[in-house]
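From the pipeline queue, job 12 of 40. The input is one protein chain; the requested action is below.

Action: predict structure.
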Amino acid sequence: MTVRAPSTHRLRRFVATAAALGSLFAGLTACDPEVPSLPPLAWQGPELSAGNTGDEVTQMQVQLRTRGFWLNDAYGTFGETTRHALVAFQKYFGLPRTGRLDERSRFILAAQSAKVEPRKPGAGRRVEVDIARQVLLISQDGVTVWVHDVSTGKSSTPTPRGSYKIQRQINGKRISALGQLWRPKYFTGGYALHGSPSVPNYPASHGCVRLTNASINMIWDEDLVPIGTPVVLF
């Protein structure tokens, strides 16, 4: 059998993509705490909820991050970012949105270690907002970077669907007709991705895409969604 060498164009594209991903993930993990050396999350075990601490919580956090769900609580502490990461996981897989590691959620979380995949992959950095599942996914060249818990527009004030780009942004608080927006990144008109102290597990906004303040702060601090980034809402 004759094996053909890849073309120069494909090699250059592969090297460029690998370099971009390597730089991106190196930056994202540089400030991460050292991952504790523990066995993987077991398929069976106690139910975990906000306020719990210990090795079981650490195992859950490591597995959530491995699957692509962002959190930044200290390992072993089931705090708010851990709860939102778990809710995002439950939303993504169509599970009850309890924010607790119940029997079913534990089984599905422990079953695989592969990162979840974007539904609208493409070249470069992209943001997709899955309105049905109420999650936001950031990807780089078709590979998931992080998934975040969101709340989009309620039925009376729906979030616009379609393909847009980040057009402008405000690094601070903005008071508008759509409410109070923290560090908004606008993708069309007055609609933005923004932080909020209230991100319930159902659509509740005036049309914007609400993230937790911790999530939007991380996105700004890591420059994950600069002006010009494509945003697809579906």
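Job complete. Residues 1-31 have pLDDT under 50 and may be disordered.
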